[in-house]
Amino acid sequence: MNSEIYVVIIIGAILAVLLVGFIVTILFLYQRRQHRQVLEINRMKEEYERETLKSQLEIQEETFKNIGQELHDNIGQMLSVVKLSLAVLPMTDKHEAWEPIQGARQVLNKAMIDLANLTKSLHTDRITQIGLAESIHFELESINRTGLLEIEFGISGIEQSLDDQKSIVMFRIFQENLNNILKHSKAQKIQVILTYLDDKFIMKITDDGIGFNVAEKKNSTSSAAGVGLKSIFNRAKLIGAEIDMQSEPGQGTIVSIQLPLPH
């Protein structure tokens, strides 16, 4: 009789252990499946955000290209007509209007050069044709000629060509940083160093301006600078680049963008 009780107890214990094991297994599989679903939802969300951002940037680049073309074809043509009209005016250097007209011609020449530089900067095809480094150098030289800022530009390592999309996005990141410096930093000096390593490309932009609180500006939606910073980080995310932004009020700003390169 006692042996039968022991058998029943043992069988009951085994069944209880099996039942507990079954329940634990079911719970584990459920949690695992739920975890996979959360990961998949997050992946799909990131993919959607990436594709949305990519579409926005493609539309923006196409808009830049069209604006550049319109400026070149229409405004540039009108300026050329005005320049030609001034050149053929029948007067000598003895005429009382000679000096003002010469001044107007100089201003007109500068406007035409600035317009040409602007259209080149907006045109995506030029960036991919001459390369990222030369595009950045050209942009900095345009600022350097104004004499408003001290510009330092350097390249370290063996220059490598990036694919078209990454070149364009990196150039727009550079432009956005440059725009923030010119508008908000009150800097007197800008340094841009491009470094080419075997496995990554680094663009470092330094200014000696008034600096700012990075976290505060990045989370701000009420200022142009805050929107600009978000644009910089979003663009970097699109091409897999990492941004390290260091700044404090009164301490200037250092922005380092690292882009992995394929082996």
From TrEMBL:
- What Gene Ontology cellular component terms go with this record? cytoplasm; membrane
GO MF entries: 4 iron, 4 sulfur cluster binding; ATP binding; metal ion binding; phosphorelay sensor kinase activity; protein dimerization activity
Q: Give the transmembrane region(s).
A: 6-30
Q: What is its EC number?
A: 2.7.13.3
Enzyme class (EC, first level): transferase
Q: Which InterPro entries match?
A: HATPase_C_sf, HATPase_dom, His_kinase_dom, Sensor_HK_TwoCompSys, Sig_transdc_His_kin-like_C, Sig_transdc_His_kin_sub3_dim/P
Asked if Membrane is a keyword of the record, the answer is yes
- Required co-factor? [4Fe-4S] cluster
Q: Can you state which reaction this protein catalyses?
A: ATP + protein L-histidine = ADP + protein N-phospho-L-histidine
Where does the record place the Histidine kinase domain?
66-263
Subcellular location, record wording: Cytoplasm
Keyword Signal annotated: no
Q: What does this protein do?
A: Member of the two-component regulatory system NreB/NreC involved in the control of dissimilatory nitrate/nitrite reduction in response to oxygen. NreB functions as a direct oxygen sensor histidine kinase which is autophosphorylated, in the absence of oxygen, probably at the conserved histidine residue, and transfers its phosphate group probably to a conserved aspartate residue of NreC. NreB/NreC activates the expression of the nitrate (narGHJI) and nitrite (nir) reductase operons, as well as the putative nitrate transporter gene narT.
Q: What is this protein called?
A: Oxygen sensor histidine kinase NreB
Q: What is the lineage of its organism?
A: Bacteria, Pseudomonadati, Bacteroidota, Chitinophagia, Chitinophagales
